[in-house]
Structure formats: C-alpha cells, structure tokens
Amino acid sequence: MTQSATLNVELGDRSYPILIGEGLLGDAALLAARLRGPDAVVVTNDVVGPLYLGRLRDALGARISGVHVLPDGESHKHLASFAAIVDTLVEAGANRDTTVVALGGGVVGDVAGFAAACYQRGVDFLQLPTTLLAQVDSSVGGKTGVNHPGGKNLIGSFHQPVAVLIDLATLDTLPDRELSAGLAEVIKYGLLGDRGFFGWLEENMVALRRRDRTALEYAVRRCCDMKAAIVAADEREAGRRALLNLGHTFGHAIESITGYGTWLHGEAVAAGMMMAARASGLDDAAMNRIRALLEAAGLPVAPPHVGAERLRAAMQLDKKVLDGRLRLVLLHDIGDAHVTADFAEGALAAALASADG
Amino acid sequence: MTQSATLNVELGDRSYPILIGEGLLGDAALLAARLRGPDAVVVTNDVVGPLYLGRLRDALGARISGVHVLPDGESHKHLASFAAIVDTLVEAGANRDTTVVALGGGVVGDVAGFAAACYQRGVDFLQLPTTLLAQVDSSVGGKTGVNHPGGKNLIGSFHQPVAVLIDLATLDTLPDRELSAGLAEVIKYGLLGDRGFFGWLEENMVALRRRDRTALEYAVRRCCDMKAAIVAADEREAGRRALLNLGHTFGHAIESITGYGTWLHGEAVAAGMMMAARASGLDDAAMNRIRALLEAAGLPVAPPHVGAERLRAAMQLDKKVLDGRLRLVLLHDIGDAHVTADFAEGALAAALASADG
Prior knowledge:
The structure is a homodimer.
Chain A: E1 2-9, E2 16-22, H1 28-32, E3 40-45, H2 48-60, E4 64-70, H3 79-91, E5 99-104, H4 106-118, E6 124-129, H5 132-138, E7 143-148, E8 151-158, E9 163-167, H6 176-193, H7 195-209, H8 213-233, H9 248-258, H10 265-279, H11 284-296, H12 308-316, E10 328-333, E11 336-340, H13 345-353
Parallel strand pairs in A: 2-9, 3-4, 3-5, 5-6, 6-9
Antiparallel strand pairs in A: 1-2, 7-8, 10-11
C-alpha cells in the first residue's frame, strides 16, 4: 500500500488522524493499530460489502466479532437500521472496548457512527469511507445520525471517529452517478471558501471524472484539509462550521420531499447550491461559472418541480432554523460564503421559483 | 414556594444547578428562567401527568409547545418510546432552541433526556424529578438512555441537563413501594462512601418512611451533594463514578431476567447491594446492619430464585464488563467501596447462590 498524506483533526483529547492512500483497506498493521480493544464489529452495505469486506477480513481476521450489512441507499438511513445495528452489537457480545468499523459511504458512516455513539453510551468508531462523498465530507467531523420523515438527520449525535482511513482505490468501483454526487461536495469547498480551488476544479473536472488518481488525491486532500480546519475551530457548529451546509438547507428539502434516495444527497446539494447562489444575488458571470462547473461534474442545476411553497415549508423544519427563523448560507462571491438570517425575501423567492413547474 | 438549597454540578461550560425546595413546579419565574428559547416540550407519564402537568401548564402557559405522555413503568423505557418522543418534537415544530422538560421519575428522565440528546444532535433538557429515586440519583449526572432486551441502558448518551429542579412536595403522592425503591439508592450513598450518613439513615428510616419533610430534605440534599461531587470529578465514568453502580450489576441482571418493570429498579438494586456485600466477604455484623436497614426501608434483601448461572450470564452483558472481564463494586466496609475485577470467585459464587431455589 502507499500512504500519501496524513492530516489531523485537532480536537484536544478527541483529536484523530485522516490517512489518505491506496490499499489501506488491506493493511493489517495499520488497521489493527486503530483498535483499542480486542474486537471490531463491521457495518457495511450490500453493494460495498461484496467488494471490500473480504479485504478487511483478510486483514483483521478473528478480531471481527460481527458484521452488519445494511441495504444500500439513503432510504435505509433511519432509526430501524440503527436499531438493527445495535442488535448485531449485542449478538456479537460487544462491550465498551469494541470498535465499530464503518465500511461504506455516507449512509453507512452516519448510521454506524450513531450506533457507536449510543451503544453503551459510546464506543470507538473507525471510518473507512469508500465513496468520494464520504471521503471528502461525511466521514470527517463526527456528525452522525439518521433521517426522520420530518427531516434529514433529525436524530443524531456528535461522535468523533478514532481515525479516518481513506483508501482511494475504492473509488475505482464507484458508479459514475455516485462519483458526480461526491463532486458536488468537492465543488462546495471551492464555493464556500477557496476561489483558487474552484478554479483548479474548473481546469481538472475532466480528469476527476475519468478518475485520474493524482487529481482525485489532490481534491480529497484539499477538501479534508478544509474540513479538518473548520471542525477543529467549531466542532459543534456554533458558527463557522455552518458554512459547510452551503446548498444543504435547499438540498435537504429536496431529499425530504422527493423521498430519501430518489435524488442522491450530492445531487440535491448541487441543485441547492445553485438556489443558494441565486438567493445570494450573484452576477451572471459568477452564476454561469457555478452552473458550468456543476454541469461539467454531471450534476443537476435546478430542483425538481415540486413547487416553491412546498420546498419552503420543508426548509422550515431544517435544523438550521433557529428560533423559527430561516438561516441560509449565502455567497458574497465564489469562494466567500456567510451565514445569515437577514436576506432579501425577493431573492429567496426567486430561488424557490425554480421549483415551480 | 420555598427553596431550601442550591447545589452545583461543576462541569465547566456544562455546569448546572440543582435546586431543592417545595412548590418549585408552580414557580413560573423560576421555570421560565431555565428556558433558553421560546418553547418547551414536556415529557411525562400517565401517572405523574394527571397529578402535576396542570401546575406546569399554569406556570409556563403557551410556552409549552407540545406534551408527550408515556405509559408508566420501566417496561416502556425502550427505543419505541424514544422514537415516539421524537415524533412529538417534530409535530411541535421543535428546533435547536427548544427545551425538553422531563416531568416524572427515572424512566421519564432517562428517555426524555436521550431524546433531547439526539434531537437535532442535542437540545436543552430540564429535569423535574418527581420520585425519590430520580431526585437522589437519576436526574443528576447526564446519563440518559433506554433498555434493550439484551441489557439495561444499552442504548444511550451522556447529556447533562441545564438544571435539576427538585420539588419535594411531589413526594407526597409517591406510592409507598416507589418511596422504598428510592430509599435503596439513598442507602447506596451511605454504603459506598459515607458511614456517618449510613448511621443517620439507621436512626431516621422511620421518619423517612412516614415522609417527614425535614428528614427527606436532608437525605435528598446529602445524596445530591455526593452525586454532584462524583460526577464533577468523573463525568464519563472513567473511574470513581463507577462506585455509583454499587449493587447495579447484580440489580440490572435481576431486572433483565425478570422482565423490566416486574421488580422496580430500586428493589433490584437493594437485592444487588446485599449480593455485593456478600461477594465482598463482609463480616456478620456489617451484613446484619445492611440487611436490617434495607428491611427497615421495605426492600427485598435477596434476588428472585432465577438460578445462579442465569444471573451470572446476564451480568456478563453489563456495560461494566470491560474486555470480557466482569468488574464489580465491592465493599471494604460500610462507607468504603471500590471497583475491582480482582475478586474471589468463591465469594461471587456464594453471592450468586442466593438466586438458586
């Protein structure tokens, strides 16, 4: 295996490393060093499991005391999946020294992480993200949880992993649609805080989509770098971390209305970022650059025609609604985002209008 | 109303007060001052609600945006109750500024606290304990959670309340059996760390059982004082806090085997403390004092006849089993407890034998 980078999420006694490389999933010593106790319970899904669980079994052997396989997809990110993982932990005889290992994408990481957060009031949790979206975003930062019919991630916990091991080789088997969904979060980092990275993405989107390993490695490292810095500065999202929700209030509403899993999370975020850009009142030149980059990534640039009012109602239940007041992540410009409850109603209405038929 | 004492649980930016007095439930200003946002969702049960919810409604009025009434009893402390409370929070339009108010005993506090811990990854939580057990033990310290068929409190979270308001007047309506169950936890404090308080309890048990207000106030304050100090020193139970589990590893096994709610938690802890005392190899004089005090409190002093081996198996799943090794809270003497994995197997066997027919 080749390990190309180590980043750190600095959170005092809950600090942890992000290792990026190729073949990490098969590195027995690397994996074993992350287990505090004798055993691990692996949570994966029925797409990723057949591809990569064997490598993990070869590496960890009898230290795997249980395996839980979720059905693939966002529609299974609910409390029943959480409960089923807890059942598996009990059956495996898991105790406080057991490590829960999440092998998969954002859904697996979020649900497994929530189970680790709550099992016996918290056990260790190791992230092995196998999708681009999970590698650049959801596996880092300790947000865990499940969806509720009333809203996305309504039930959850902050529970930091003990480490994030990113094996870039897993991107080889990622379906094109999932790769594009991950690129939505990658573009988000450029949009919210790094105009230079946004420009790099415009130049390298073709290389990223043909899975050029060097380009992917750079993009993953750059995003993890930004995420680690933001999480270290604001673990509980009291301020700056909310910038990472760019496009997400709109996106969560799309996911909630269309039914979780119909739109991939990254697709909904892509359309959501376009709506956020419009609500920000950006000029045509900036709007065109954002639209062009999302399209180059193979992503939607408008919401489904569910109706502006329905979208607005779903947004009101978003976790970022404080004191009943809608707060949005808006853009001063590409690379310069801010959180505000003080936006022009007309601009929001114009953005929501794109959901009308 | 009369407020007789204020204690503090010192946990840095998560510090909070414990207020003890009479009539606190009807004190509008006192209650309102504890709500950070505009609204509160009250969780109670079908025994406590009819008695005290009206007072809370009179005091908080329209600030109560939702009420969830659980069925009474430990058998309802499960994940389905947690999910139902979350549904109520969604229906009430609860957001991050909402406060979850637990009005009831240990079950209400534990389940409501867990819902507060997980709703939108954590909202404020106010404890209004109405049973002696909740007032002296479960409402302080931030342990929240629900039971699983595989073990007690297997699913949960550490989530400190913003305040604990103890209205001693609520003890007037507590059934005798529940009062005795609460006294088990009171006796626990004497046994684990305060020989003088144990002696005071021997002298005042009759007054406590006839609900002498002065005696109850002293006992509640003394227990909360000890609990606050222990929690401040060891919030996450890395060490000393485990002493509070005296009798609980045995007790949880009794509850799990007999079916949650058949034995009250305090009753199981009473029998568990006797077993712990026996496993500690205390002399006859000490054993007789412990037995006599538990009996004076109206508590059982032996486990049900479920069989020693069955009890031992259930204990193995207890959260305190680290690395597969059973750890017990044992006594050097009355008022002097310690945690150990290094105990005489023969002494444990003698304690478990009391569960044989």
